[in-house]
Amino acid sequence: MSFPSLLVKEKEDMQAVRGSRPRGLSRKHREWIAASFFLLPDMLGLLIFLGIPMVMALGMGFFNVDGFGNITFVGLQNYTAMFSDAQFMGSLRVTLLYIFLFVPGLFVCSLFLAILVKQKIPLVGVFRSMFFLPNVVSLVVVGFVWKFLLIDKIGLINQLLQMVGISGNSWLGDPKLALGTILVVTIWFWMGYYMVIFLAGLQEISPEYYEAARLDGAGHWSTFRYVTWPLLKPTSFFVLLVSLVSAVAGSQGFDLIFVMTQGGPANSTSLGIFYIYQQAFQFGNYGYAAAMASFLVVILLVATILMFTVTKGGRFEFD
């Protein structure tokens, strides 16, 4: 047999052996399966503890549920009743005011702290830890501490003001001051957390941009306006989005108000989420509370979609 014939025969034998082997999954498919197994516990948790309760709450809004086994189908009655509920409409107005003050206030304070602790100053690690420290404490504990500090006349805040000749105020008892006081405490609690997010975004900006700005003679404000701010816009979008969701349905919207004011005085701090809690667990109107919660979720979903649409997913590219 000639040499070319031997090469052809060897090639045919190799193809026969290769064809007889069982074909396994490709690397891409194996990685996809492995990733699915890693994600499965979290996906099940989200489905069981978030997805199913949301669907049940949406459906419960069409029923009159008193918590004692009495369930009556009422159609859209709960959804129409909320628009004639003066207290619910009032809680929505308080929620809107809370959002318009909380989101920008938290944004500015967190960004300022992030820029401050990014500087090369002595003990910068200590300052970062101090600003973040409130987040390791329960919101309920924070609420009780601040409530003690703000007690009329005998509270530490009023005593310090009286020492410098300023008369104390009823910070939690005056309808004109209560919501502002809650906002100050809330921003103080969360600004360290969002400071860390901003700090991560700032550290992603290459120092070469700042060096180029310095060589061009740019001052601090010009550097922030033309270098820091444009490159920080994706992080800014994330902070705005998360703080908006937190303002509408976050834990501070319930925990601090429950501990410090119970929605008072005169419903001046009764946010939508707190009023929903009252209807469900104090008055037993579970169906009505579920309808109001579904309405808030829809409003939040629409606001989120609008933010993504206007900012193009946080890129802010209008040209």
Automatic annotation (TrEMBL):
Domain ABC transmembrane type-1: 92-307
InterPro entries: ABC_transporter_permease, MetI-like, MetI-like_sf
CDD domains: TM_PBP2
Keyword Transferase: no
Membrane-spanning segments: 32-56, 96-117, 129-151, 177-200, 231-250, 289-310
Locations listed in the record: Cell membrane
Keywords from the named record: Cell membrane, Membrane, Transmembrane, Transmembrane helix, Transport
Short name of any one Pfam family annotated for the protein: BPD_transp_1
Superkingdom per UniProt: Bacteria
Gene3D superfamilies reported for this sequence: MetI-like
Membrane topology: Multi-pass membrane protein
Keyword presence, Transmembrane helix: yes
Family affiliation: Belongs to the binding-protein-dependent transport system permease family.
Protein name: Suagr ABC transporter permease
Protein's organism: Dictyobacter formicarum
Species lineage: Bacteria, Bacillati, Chloroflexota, Ktedonobacteria, Ktedonobacterales
